[in-house]
Amino acid sequence: MASLPPVYSFPPLYTRQPNSLTRRQQISTWIDIISQYCKGKKIWYMSADGTVIDDDRSENGKIDNEDSKEVGKNLFNNEEIQRSVPQVFIDEIWSQMVKEGKCLPIDQSGRKSNNSTTTRYFILWKNLDNWASLILQWFEDSGKLNQVITLYELSESDETLSWEFHGMPENLLYYSLKPLCDRNRATMLKDENGKVIAIKVV
Amino acid sequence: MASLPPVYSFPPLYTRQPNSLTRRQQISTWIDIISQYCKGKKIWYMSADGTVIDDDRSENGKIDNEDSKEVGKNLFNNEEIQRSVPQVFIDEIWSQMVKEGKCLPIDQSGRKSNNSTTTRYFILWKNLDNWASLILQWFEDSGKLNQVITLYELSESDETLSWEFHGMPENLLYYSLKPLCDRNRATMLKDENGKVIAIKVV
C-alpha cells in the first residue's frame, strides 16, 4: 500500500484556504496524510517544519531502514508538483493535531513541551491511551506481569518484534506507559539520575 | 476504519479544476475515494451518477446489509458540506477509472458496455486479474480443482464466506473468471440459454 494518497499531489491542498470551514477540512486532510504516512513507514518524529527525522537510536550505531523511512524528506514540500505548505499554515496544522491528541510537541531535551520550546513532534498514529492498552496487552499475553521490564527491552527485544510499538523511542514509550500508571496498573522505575528506565505492570 | 477520508469534505475537490495537471490529481483522488469506499462497504455497483445500487441479489428476497451499504447514497453529492460534482466532471472521472481498469462499464442487460449504453459501473477495487488469482487460490486451497462449481456457489456458498469475492454478483464473477479461461486454467459451462452458470478450474 502506498503511504501517500493521490490527494497528496492535489495542489489546492497546499494553499491555505481562506474560508474557515474549508480550511478545517483541509487541515483534517493533512492530519490524515501525516498519520497514515508515519504509520506506514513507522516514523515516530517529525521536525516542526515537517522533516522526517530519525529517532535517537541512530546514536547507538543502529542505522536500520533509514532509506525506507525517507529520513530528511520534508512532507510539506512536494517536489513532484513543486508545491509547499507555508510555515504559518504548517503551524496551524500542528496546533490542531496536538489538540486532537494525534501528535505530541517535544522540546530539545525530549520532553513534552509547550508551544514556545517545541522542536519536533511525536506522531501519534495511535493515541496515547491506545498505545497504553496495546502495551498492556503485550504484558498480559507474554506473561510479563509483576516483572521489571526495561524500556529498552520493550522497544528493542525480539519478544516485541511483531508488536506495533517495537522500535518506539524510549521517551515516547514513557508517555505511552503513563496512562497505565495513572490507572494504577503500573509503576515506573528510575535510575540514579531520575530517568525512567523500566516499568512493572501489575 | 472510516470509509470516507477527510479529503472527501474538502470543497475544492468538487470544483472541476481548470488546470489539467491539477485536474489529473483531482481525478486520482476521486478514484481513490470511490475504490476505498466501495471496498470498505463491499459495494459492487454504482450508477453513472454515483448512486450506490444494490446488486441483483435483492431480487431473490435477500436484503442483507442494505443499511451499511447505504444503498441510494450518491457519493458525488456531499450533503454535509452541500457540494456536488457536476455530471460532466463525474463522466470524466468514470472515463479515467475505466481506462485504469478500476471499474467496468455495464449496460442494462448486465454486460460490459461501450460508453453510449452504460447505465452503471462495477467498481473494481481489485482489478480483474487480481480477482482471478484470488478465486484460483480458493479453488486450490479448498481442493475444488477439476470439479464443476456454479457461479452461485462461488458467490453465496458458506465455503467462500471468508473470501473477499463472497457475495460478488454473478456477472462480475464472469468477468473475474475470464482471465482464467484466457490462461487455459478454466472452462465455463453454459445453461440451455447460453448463459454461463458454472466453471471448472483445472
Automatic annotation (TrEMBL), chains A, B:
Coiled coil location: none
Keyword Protein transport among record annotations: yes
Protein transport keyword on record: yes
Keywords per UniProt: Protein transport, Transport
Cited Gene3D superfamilies: Winged helix' DNA-binding domain. Chain C. Domain 1, Winged helix-like DNA-binding domain superfamily/Winged helix DNA-binding domain
Superkingdom of origin organism: Eukaryota
Cited InterPro entries: ESCRT-II_cplx_Vps25-sub, ESCRT-II_cplx_Vps25-sub_N, WH-like_DNA-bd_sf, WH_DNA-bd_sf
Family, as annotated: Belongs to the VPS25 family.
Name the UniProt record assigns to this protein: Vacuolar protein-sorting-associated protein 25
